[in-house]
Design a protein that fits this description.
The structure is a homodimer of 360-residue chains. The first copy, chain A, is α/β, with parallel strands linked by helices and 360 residues long. Helix content of chain A is 42%, strand content 15%. Chain A is built from 12 helices and 12 strands. Chain A has helices at residues 24-31, 35-43, 53-63, 69-76, 92-107, 121-132, 148-157, 180-193, 210-224, 241-254, 266-279, 312-331, and strands spanning 81-86, 111-116, 138-142, 161-164, 174-177, 199-204, 231-235, 260-263, 288-290, 307-309, 340-343, 347-349. In chain A, helix 11 links the parallel strand 8 (260-263) and strand 9 (288-290). Chain A is elongated, with a radius of gyration of 27 Å. The model of chain A is unreliable at 1-17 (pLDDT under 50). Chains A and B meet through helix 4, helix 5, strand 2, helix 6 and helix 7 of A and helix 4, helix 5, strand 2, helix 6 and helix 10 of B. Chain A binds a DNA duplex (16 and 16 nucleotides) through residues 6, 12-17, 19, 21, 23-25, 33-37, 39-40, 43, 47-49, 52, 67-77.
Chain lengths: 360, 360
DNA sequence: TTGTAGGCGTTATCAT
DNA sequence: ATGATAACGCCTACAA
């Protein structure tokens, strides 16, 4: 009997804990071929002769062999894994993007490593560092604002870096998102077109959620450029209908003849709708309301909510596609392409909550 | 000059693609110590003398060393990674659980590998197989129903297996969730207590979403045991307010004097509320409505929605805690503990949509 | 406390 | 087409 397994312990003085998992050598022994052939077969079944292919296949099945990706990745110096950093997983937007990305990457045999930064740039840096230690194929981070440490890591990493959900200056390799200032401007233009002049932008935790802050800035600046001062309300709590209702009251205190309110997202906007109903303020007749996100309830609520549809899943899909194409090109020996910005845009969904002018 | 790096290529006939990444040897050379000292320092900084510790620390910083987890995990035969399979990432419930789990595992240095089965048991098996090839520390899957392949893999895996979001018979190692039949029964008892006798349960894709199906079964069986036949409506589309509205109409067609409708989740319920308003059916006076999930809008909508709060984040947290405790115990040399079922329960949130009896 | 060397399970190179 | 064998970067038993 030729026993070639590493467990044969030829008087092993320095013996090692045997993982006792089925290895490629085991498969090779069972199929009476070399490990190299098994490895080859696994990567390209056509490359081995029709005589031994079935033997290998059989051995794999019989032994229930599961390749060890750690060893494989170490040897090949590349890991089929993509590190993804999002601010929060509970956030429906990012969840949707991650879902789309995962689905597409999965089809191509890539694993997703996931981390949440909790809107904290230090955490982001730690996560990036942690991901890097896995030698990932690529890294995906949220937004274009990172601290010094993250910048350094990302630059040294020598792997494609994708920034998502936001477009901005100086892309590392790829940016897939849209301009949140443009969102704010679109909402401003829409409400202004309705005749609204006494307006407010309300949000929650906008000092941390920079994209919401950018929407607010785009909104307020657009009005300011036309000589109108928009009120900006920021609740120091997580976004919720309750926070939205409170923000509406705060806005009404400061500006009793408010005609329109743009909310940092749909959840806040829903709270505004409910609070307005409670206060007997007709929407949209006396108050126009807009949101952001086009969440499931937005088109179903009464009145239906004017909002921005952010194409979260398109972002995820495009990231995967662009990245896969880039990796493919690289495999063909092509040079690293220029940094690229993909603007997936967004759509203003005008619905009943801002259908008619508030001054009618 | 003592050049001990592996790149010194002493007439390397069999040279290998150098990753040219900074390795532990580089750090060791820079700090003028051996690699094992660096390794030791990394794992337990106290264990190394105060003389060389700062040298190592400095070298790590100067060189920007990032440990290679692939090599480390391969050598140590364990990977600080947890494989997680959820049906869908876009689903807010699972997203919340994953978020909580990720947060807790992250604090302990574990990576999350994420996969979505799309409610497909075959996909689940593939994902489990893929995760296994990473030699994860543990595996977390959703629900207690798996196909044969998954069962085999999970049993052979030799790693702790957690089933979440559902309790049932024959746990592998750990189940953290609650009984969905009990949810259905609780809702049934609540509505029955209100005096409702003409009732319906509406849902979407319940043949694939087995947990929703269990809620329906618990609901219908509870009534059946009391001689009441509940109507069950299943929409063949993804759950949405629109689907909920359509389901309500279908229910009213079949049972015009409907007194109460339990929905498979809050999104469906919201659609029912809106559709009822549209139809001029007073809620709760003429029709009581309940949901499942306690989504953000549920307590804010008008009327506020009676629903079930599923404690999604508690599930994630408990999984992490139980698993970490188990791993700790194992590290102490303790034997594998008995399979355990953790029922995190749920809470019935009675709100306005079912506050008064429909027969008042 | 520090260093030495063997092994973890693959992939890749080269020779047959 | 197939097989030896050297990396891959680190951990760890053991010796010093």
């Amino acid at each position: 009997m030729t026993d070639t397994t590493k467990n044969s312990s030829k008087n092993a003085a320095r013996s090692r804990r045997g993982t006792n998992r089925v290895t490629m050598d085991d498969v090779a022994a069972r199929a009476r071929v070399s490990a190299s052939s098994v490895s080859l077969f696994l990567r390209n079944p056509e490359a081995v002769s029709a005589r031994i292919a079935p033997r290998i296949k059989r051995a794999i099945e019989v032994l229930g062999y599961v390749p060890n990706k750690l060893a494989g990745s170490l040897a090949a110096a590349r890991t089929r894994a993509i590190g993804v950093v999002v601010p929060a997983l509970g956030n429906a937007f990012f969840a949707e993007t991650v879902a789309a990305m995962q689905s597409e990457f999965d089809r191509h045999g890539y694993q997703l490593l996931l981390g949440a930064s909790e809107y904290d740039l230090e955490r982001e840096a730690e996560l990036v560092r942690a991901f890097l230690s896995w030698s990932p194929t690529a890294l995906v981070v949220t937004g274009c604002h990172h601290n010094e440490a993250t910048h350094t890591l990302l630059r040294q990493a020598n792997v494609p870096v994708v920034e998502m959900w936001e477009t901005g200056e100086q892309p590392f390799d790829l940016q897939v998102g849209f301009s949140h200032r443009a969102v704010g401007e679109a909402l401003a233009a829409h409400l202004h077109g309705l005749g609204a002049r006494r307006i407010a932008f309300i949000g929650a935790r906008m000092e941390k959620d920079m994209r919401a802050g950018q929407r607010r800035d785009g909104f307020c600046d657009w009005f300011k450029a036309r000589g109108i001062d928009a009120l900006a309300i920021n609740q120091p709590v997580e976004a919720s209908p309750t926070a939205g209702g409170a923000a509406l009251n705060a806005a009404l205190d400061a500006m009793p003849d408010l005609q329109a309110v743009a909310c940092s997202n749909d959840v806040m906007a829903l709270g505004v709708l409910f609070e307005a109903q409670r206060l007997g303020i007709a929407v949209p007749d006396r108050l126009a309301v807009t949101g952001f996100g086009d969440l499931p309830f937005s088109q179903a609520c009464v009145p239906s909510l004017t909002t921005i549809e952010p194409r979260a899943s398109v972002i995820g899909l495009r990231i995967a596609q662009e990245l896969l194409a880039r990796l493919d090109a690289e495999a063909q020996g092509e040079d690293a392409p220029e940094p690229k910005v993909v603007d997936v845009a967004f759509e203003l969904m005008v619905r009943d909550s801002s259908r008619r002018g508030p001054a009618d």
